[in-house]
TrEMBL record:
Keyword Transmembrane belongs to the record: no
Family, per entry: Belongs to the ParD antitoxin family.
Transferase among keywords: no
Database matches in PANTHER family: ANTITOXIN PARD (PTHR36582)
UniProt KW keywords: Toxin-antitoxin system
The species this protein was found in: Sphingobium wenxiniae (strain DSM 21828 / CGMCC 1.7748 / JZ-1)
Database matches in NCBIfam families: antidote_CC2985
Gene3D superfamilies linked: Antitoxin ParD1-like
UniProt GO BP: regulation of DNA-templated transcription
Protein name: Antitoxin ParD1/3/4
Amino acid sequence: MATMNVSLPDPLRDYVQQRIDSGQYASVSDYVRDLIRRDQSVVVDEERWLKDLDASIEASLKEMEAGGGHDLHDVCAEIIADIEATADRKQH
């Protein structure tokens, strides 16, 4: 296992020590390893989300090229008409 030295300002060092003293972590190394694992998980989740988003956009573009989908102007007009109808019903 490799060793790394990290310099922290006093408030951060004190915070880490509080986490250890509370029993949440066994040592500074345990705390840092947990932070790194959490960061790795976030990065993996973001990469998965972006990959899924890219696939969704690609599928939508193919659908649009094949004549599918809905015209944005028409969809917005329907939404506005629904909002106006709801407002009219609430006023009467």
